[in-house]
Amino acid sequence: MWAIPISILIAVLIGLIGDALTESEIRGSATAAIIAGLAGAWLGSWLFGNLGPVVDGFAVIPAIVGAALAVFILTAASRLLARTL
């Protein structure tokens, strides 16, 4: 019953930590943090496996590194789109 809300909360926290590690600011705040957190968890586990502690299915260290990469990619893409429009 609480699995989805807890996963979303963890994704938000991971996304915000990933955002804090980069010098860019993620646009869309909570929604973008959820996307960055989920994408970061997937990207981090794909790149680094299940390294370190796992919380509710999220390998924390790879998810945070992956979220930082996702935030970097999302902000670079948004700057590129803003420049072309």
Report on this model:
The protein is mostly helical and 85 residues long. 75% of the residues lie in helices and 5% in strands. The protein has one domain. It has helices at 3-21, 29-48, 60-84; strands at residues 54-55, 58-59. Strands 1-2 form a two-stranded antiparallel sheet. A hairpin with a 2-residue loop joins strand 1 and strand 2 (58-59). Keywords: Cell membrane, Membrane, Transmembrane, Transmembrane helix. The chain crosses the membrane at residues 6-22, 29-48, 60-82. Belongs to the UPF0410 family. It is found in: Cell membrane.
Low-pLDDT windows of residues:
none
- Percent helix, as a range, is over 70%
Along the chain, the helix and strand elements come as HHEEH
Q: Describe the largest sheet.
A: 2 strands, antiparallel
Q: Based on helices, strands and strand pairing, what is the structural class?
A: mainly alpha
Tell me the radius of gyration.
Answer: 13 Å
Please work out how many helical segments DSSP would assign. Answer: 3
Q: β content, as a range?
A: under 5%
Protein name: Transglycosylase
Pfam family, one: Transgly_assoc
Membrane topology: Multi-pass membrane protein
Family: Belongs to the UPF0410 family.
